[in-house]
Amino acid sequence: MKNNKRLPTLAAALLFLLPALSGTLHAQIITLTGETFKTLHGKQSGLYSFFTMQDGRLAPVPHQWVQWSEQGYPYFEEDDSTSPVGDPLRIDAEDRLLLRFEDGGQPLDGPVTEQVAAELAVEQGGETRYFYLIKNAYLQNTDRYVQFDPQSMTIKSTDYALSMAGGNLFNWSDFYFRGFEGENGERQSILDTLKLRLSAGLFGENNRITLSNNNLDPKVKQVINGPLAALVYASTSVTVAKVPVLRINNYFLVMPKQMEIHSRFTLPGIAETVVKRPALDISLDGNGLYDSQLMTSWTGNHLAITDGRLSDAEKAMLDKPLGGDNWIWFSTGRGFDLLAQLAFLKGFDTPARLLYQDDASLVNDPERFPGQLPNVGFSLTDIPFGQEFYFVTRLFYSKDSQGLAPGNYARQQLDEPSATLTLE
Predict the structure, then answer these.
(1) What is the pTM of this model?
(2) Pairwise CA distance, residues 218 & 216, whole Å
């Protein structure tokens, strides 16, 4: 039976920055690598602006270059474990370019007053849109679609707002999405909290301890706020009995309707003298999201429905390890859907498994609201010591997955764009 009375006490409203985006399939940020721009390698990226045809004329649209490191992660000056590829001010093969696909237009069909340096044709999901590079353009686009404030620890975008409690980057609390309403038609936080739990035996297998978000104190080392993405670098270290047992580097790319989290973590070899058989759980706990549905790419046609109990189908889903390019689709049916892709890129010899809890009374700290309704993520067990693990979590937010079946929606959202640059 649904609990309609349990609604959260609403925090102070977080204001969105810009008008609402359209609900089209391609209202997401696309990423192109510097390989597309070979003919411009070595050129200063700041010299070029991106324009598209709008109402019969060229108009500037937002773009953002993101630097990558030689080690294969987003580059931040404050991260001394990485080094940049080439000159950060010049275009090279490892750079990433961010664009909004929906900003792309039709090809030029007549003369224009601007001096076009190149045409960029981008194809995704069977659709092609065109951008034009203008060198030393007088007109510039000044729109900003997302902002991260390290003082208040809040993210505000055109479509959602997320706050972190206690100044802790891992203590996700209120999450509001434009158009989502609670069961009584009131504004409601979709999220209870993010849950991070590291458990291990202390000086022996039978004396297990558990560390949660409350035991982690990530240090925000650098923030880069751009028009299409806020980039955040944070590092975390955990010590038990004066022995370092965990090191984490996180690189967040926060975008208007999506988020990309690069995570590197290591259990130092010396930690094996203190902790035994470590396990890690990472999950998001929903706030009373009854009747929501969940499917994954690796558990067949099983459908999980949040109703306060685990069905046989849900139990079967928990037994299957993640594999390949996996994804999780989650729909509230009330104006918010989530597609999550988990890419395990380095060090994962032990398979991860789905974590899914559907229980109105189960306590799984940290949490603000009773129950796991639902708590969704993944678990890693028997993590080896002395090696680095690297995985990327991609989160895509939408109103209703454009009405597509989960598999079709996932394929279209996760489809890698292709692009061709033609110099004029």
Answers:
(1) 0.90
(2) 6
pLDDT in tens, 97-149: 999 999 999 999 888 889 999 999 999 988 999 999 999 999 999 999 999 99
pLDDT digits (tens, 9 = 90+) for 28-73: 899 999 999 999 999 999 999 999 999 999 999 999 999 999 999 9
3-class SS string, 366-379: CCCCCCEEEEEEEE
**How far is 52 from 27, CA to CA, in rounded Å?**
16
Q: What token pair was written down for 6?
A: 């349990």
Give bridge partners of residue 364 from the DSSP assignment.
Answer: none
Q: Please answer whether residues 254 and 273 qualify as being in contact, where contact means their C-beta atoms are separated by less than 8 angstroms.
A: no
Please choose, from the candidates 423, 419, 424, 321, the residue with its C-alpha nearest in 3D space to the C-alpha of residue 34. Answer: 419
Give the DSSP H/E element, type plus range, for residue 413. Answer: helix 406-414
How much is the pLDDT for 27?
62
3-state helix/strand/coil string of 319-370: CCECCCCEEEEEECCCCCEEEEEEEEEECCCCCCEEEEEEECCCCCCCCCCC
Q: What are phi and psi of 58, to 5 degrees?
A: -80, 130
Q: What would the DSSP string read from start to end of 392-406? A: EEEEEEESSGGG--H
Residue 251 and residue 262 in contact, taking contact as beta carbons nearer than 8 Å: yes
